[in-house]
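cron nightly-structures :: item 1 of 1
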Amino acid sequence: MMLSPLAKRSLSRAQWLALVPVALVFGPLLPGLFWALAPVLDGVVWRDLWLDAQWPQALRATLVSSVLGSALALGLAMLLATWHYPGALWRTLQRRLPLLLALPHAAFAVGLFFLLAPSGWLARLIAQLLQWSSPPDWITVQDPYGLSLALALALKESWFLLWVLAALLGEQPVRRQMVVARTLGYSRAQAWRLILWPQLLPRLGWPLAAVLAYGLSVVDMAIILGPNTPPTLAVLVWRWLTDPDAALQARGSAASLVLLALLLLAAALAHGLWHGRQRRRPDPDGLRQVTAARPWFKLPMPLFLTGYAVLAVLLLWSLAETWFFPALWPDSLSWASWRTADWAPFRTTLWLAAAVSLLCLPAALVWLEWGPQRYNAVLYLPLIVPAMPLVAAQYAALLKLQLDGTALGLVWSHLLWVLPYMVLTLVGAYRAFDARLLVSARVLGCTRLQACLRVKWPLLVRPILATFAVGFAVSVAQYLPTLFAGAGRFVTVTTEAVALSAGGNRRVLAVQALLQIALPVAAFALAAWLPHGLARHRKGLR
């Protein structure tokens, strides 16, 4: 049926209305990028960057931590899927993934620091066996090559890649192909190598790019676990951009472009290697291999135990009164650190994350319902581009608008990252919705908006609440936007935990890290519990 000119105009008007909130979030970035990156047109800036004594080692630590961390994360996710899908252990992993994903990066880095440091819990455990009386002279964290940072990134980002893989493996065609391959006599490893991975790996390209982009530009985890003298390139860029010297600010802008160039170079290399391998890959020979026994070593167990150990050691440090090396447990426990804790960062984080999520949720719903979906890739750019150039652009725009250090500027700075994550989380459930229900509502006389309010969005209440929880967690974890846009006037649990990690009291640091974890966990718990109450008299929604 052809649309009338009036219908076409109304459809176009709806699309333009859906673009308004997205334009408000992304629009100021364009002049901000110009203001932030204009100084890099001077060749002197690039010469000074090249001659900087910290530059080579910072670049090396960045490449080692980001590339090695991303490769290990992908390897862990692939091993877990190959060994345990389908099966009971894979279903257990899927159930526990939300809790692991709710761990903010900075809190996870603090907990891992407490585990791996020369005076950490693992060293204390070894000390009990070897009768050490003082911490060993080992560089287990903040090593010059960024290996401890790479380990933290590998563990944390493997959970994200597993979450993406779980969504892909839940699709019916993939599951049917696995069943058919096993029915034809192919082993589990053969089915994955010959059939599933050639299809799934290209679809993991964008998530893997997001993992690498985060590894290149991460600052909070790098401050806690990365090298200090010199730091990683992202930390160096952050220091330069916040320096009052205009020459150092220009050097920071140039170095932020280097991070973007590294991502593009890595993406081009990965694309070329993948296509080269596909061209040389031989056709399947039809030979069946004997099904190998599953490894006795259950890889998910260390991943689970690491997450639980991080929570446990943070809780112990928050309750410890005295805990000297090589004691395995604190000498005594007390609530003193909690009673004297500074709750101002917690309250700031709570209202900030709630405000950002409440603003982004209707924007995401309107975009998915009426927005031009062919531009989704543009919306996802903040997730797959190193954060430094974007944060610098945000800061430049806020300075020009005189909104730096204001609540409005702080909320806007978080929207750029929260909105894409919420759209990405909700788009799958939105596309899977049965469109016939919406058509039936329209036939019964509802407008498009009424059909969404009365039928579509109530039926999607579970993924909508889960999307809200994801947006809340993403806002809680934001470090760089809070530092730049807040101009030091707003302190969140994330910025406080990173500041304390530089040498503050471990008990206070553990309290702030646990508060950072508690907020997203509470949001996910609320998102899981609310549908049961809302669906008490609606059996189909349970």
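cron nightly-structures :: done
The first strand starts at residue 320 and ends at 322.
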